[in-house]
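User: quick one, fold this
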Amino acid sequence: MLIKVLGSGCAKCKKTEQIIREVVAESGVEATVVKVEDFQEIVSYGVFTTPAVVVDDVVKISGRVPGKKDVLGWLG
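Assistant:
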């Protein structure tokens, strides 16, 4: 599983990455978490508000910080 956190590096983007890394570690699910700050790549997903999260090339959330329950749902 590949999880991308899309964002410029703002506080909300950092919080999103932190939550995702915590949930992945706690759940034991094997996933790679990548931070994407390249504007062209962010826009390529159709995302115009950050933070956003992409799981296996599917945008799961955009414009807000996800909760732990959101992330657990994405991990299956």
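User: anything notable?
Assistant: The radius of gyration is 11 Å.
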